[in-house]
């Protein structure tokens, strides 16, 4: 019998790519999503890619009664991948209570339901934001966490702590936190990808929307950082590579191959790329000269961070396979595809 995986936030950017990879690996996928930041149509797109239509249950995870009804209906869930969360760093500063309520209450409800309905395995969407500006680069999982610079970042730190404490108190619960660096790109089919609401906060959607003519020009937030070209450095990984890591993490938990009841993994390429290098990569794969200008720094930006992914490389036998150029190309293909359809 197939293992059934609950994917919360499964119609979102990383959730949809992970659902595709889970289905490809023979898992049954059931998605819970409130469609706050995504469309139900993504289910049809996942169907188009995989030939399988995952089940979608639309409700808010903050509603514990609905979650109970869900677990009574689906009493054969093997593991949960919990993506559902608000994720806009800037917005979180203006709406802290919304962020704390949504991101933390939903997580508490999921863990509570796991205990009561006997689901033992959880994979959690965390972020390299928990490290702040690390002293040593590349950053390893045992680096000290820094005070979060936004309510969003705080929900990831507190979320990790809630999960860790739950695994300590209840030996039946096993969990993995995956600390993502900067996911970019889209599925090679260009059927699913990132769909930011309004003006994008993140670099790559801003680049592709500028190239498509939806934005006048990209603002490069600072060229006076202590980096080789003065712009900030990040570790950009292809979202399909990231999605595959979730499948491996789920298999590890279901197969009881975890070493401790709570494990944390960095998911990145191990390579730092500057904003100006990312622009060059886009220009290379698209053949388009991008309009951009250097402006002042963005408040709260980390100067430079990239992963030491060796723990995930070794323990999960996972590593990124796609290059920056490949990831950029899929981001551009997706942008063109989605705009052509809408236009
Ligand atoms: N950047 C620009 N111009 C833009 C947008 C971004 O120059 O219009 C620069 C930023 O200054 C930064 C880099 O591009 O140097 C990447 O910025 P993103 O906003 O794409 O990503 P961040 O690294 O700032 O944030 C991401 C995720 C967060 C997560 C954080 C962890 O979006 O969810 O990584 O550090 F918390």
Describe the structure.
This protein has 343 residues and is α/β, with parallel strands linked by helices. The chain is 41% helix and 17% strand. It is built from eleven helices and 13 strands. The strands form four sheets. The protein has a seven-stranded parallel β-sheet, with helices on both faces. α1 links the parallel β1 and β2 (28-33). α7 packs across α9. The radius of gyration is 19 Å and the shape is globular. It starts with a strand and ends with a helix. The model has no long low-confidence stretch (mean pLDDT 97). Uridine-5'-diphosphate-4-deoxy-4-fluoro-alpha-D-galactose is lined by residues 87, 89, 127-129, 153, 182, 201-203, 206, 218-221, 232, 234, 275, 298, 301-302.
For this entry, give a set of tags.
binds uridine-5'-diphosphate-4-deoxy-4-fluoro-alpha-D-galactose; 7-stranded parallel β-sheet; 343 residues; alpha/beta; 17% strand; 11 helices; two-stranded parallel sheet; globular
Lay out the secondary structure:
Layout: E1 4-8, H1 13-24, E2 28-33, H2 42-50, E3 55-58, H3 64-73, E4 77-82, H4 89-94, H5 96-117, E5 121-127, H6 151-169, E6 174-180, E7 182-184, H7 203-212, E8 218-221, E9 233-234, E10 236-238, H8 239-254, E11 262-267, E12 273-274, H9 275-286, E13 292-295, H10 310-315, H11 324-342
Parallel strand pairs: 1-2, 1-4, 2-3, 4-5, 5-6, 6-11, 7-10, 8-13
Antiparallel strand pairs: 9-12
Helix pairs in contact: 1-2, 1-8, 3-5, 5-6, 7-9, 7-11, 9-11
The structure holds uridine-5'-diphosphate-4-deoxy-4-fluoro-alpha-D-galactose.
């Amino acid at each position: 019998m197939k293992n059934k995986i609950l994917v919360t936030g499964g119609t979102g950017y990383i959730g949809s790519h992970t659902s595709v990879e889970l289905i490809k690996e023979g898992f049954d996928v059931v998605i819970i999503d409130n469609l706050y930041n995504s469309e139900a149509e993504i289910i049809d797109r996942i169907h188009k890619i995989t030939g399988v239509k995952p089940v979608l249950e639309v409700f808010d995870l903050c509603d514990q009664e609905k979650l109970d009804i869900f677990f009574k209906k689906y009493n054969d869930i093997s593991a949960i991948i919990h993506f559902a969360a608000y994720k806009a760093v800037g917005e979180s500063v203006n709406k802290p209570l919304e962020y704390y309520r949504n991101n933390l209450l939903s997580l508490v409800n999921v863990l509570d339901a796991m205990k009561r309905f006997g689901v033992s395995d959880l994979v959690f969407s965390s972020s390299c934001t928990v490290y702040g500006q690390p002293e040593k680069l590349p950053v390893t999982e045992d680096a000290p966490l820094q005070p979060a610079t936004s309510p969003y970042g705080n929900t990831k730190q507190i979320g990790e702590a809630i999960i860790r404490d739950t695994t300590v108190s209840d030996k039946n619960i096993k969990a993995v936190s995956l600390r993502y660096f900067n996911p970019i790109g889209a599925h090679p089919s260009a059927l699913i990808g990132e769909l930011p609401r309004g003006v994008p906060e993140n670099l790559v959607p801003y680049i592709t929307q500028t190239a498509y003519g939806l934005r006048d020009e990209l603002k490069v937030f600072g060229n006076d950082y202590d980096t080789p070209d003065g712009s900030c450095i990040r570790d950009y990984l292809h979202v399909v590579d990231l999605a595959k890591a979730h499948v491996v993490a789920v298999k590890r938990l279901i197969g009881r191959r975890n070493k401790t009841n709570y494990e944390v993994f960095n998911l990145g390429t191990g390579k730092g790329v500057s904003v100006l290098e990312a622009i060059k990569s886009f220009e290379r794969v698209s053949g388009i000269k991008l309009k951009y200008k250097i402006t002042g720094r963005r408040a709260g930006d980390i100067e430079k961070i990239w992963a030491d992914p060796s723990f995930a490389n070794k323990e999960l036998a996972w590593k990124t396979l796609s290059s920056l150029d490949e990831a950029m190309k899929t981001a551009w293909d997706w942008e063109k595809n989605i705009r052509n359809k809408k236009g």
